[in-house]
Amino acid sequence: MNTYKEKLFLGYRNFISGKAKLQRDLYQDLIINGQKPKIMVICCSDSRVNPSDIFNVKPGDIFEHQNVANIVPSVDSLGSSYGTLAAVEYAVMALKVEVIIVIGHEACGGIKGCLDGMGYNASGYVGKWVSVFNEVREKLIQQHIPKEKLQIEMELEGVRQSLRNLMTYKFVEEAVNSGQLELLGSHFSVSNRELSIMNSNGEFKSLK
Ligand SMILES: [Zn+2]
Question: Which residues have beta carbons under 5 A from ligand 1 (an ion)?
Answer without folding.
Answer: 44, 46, 108, 110
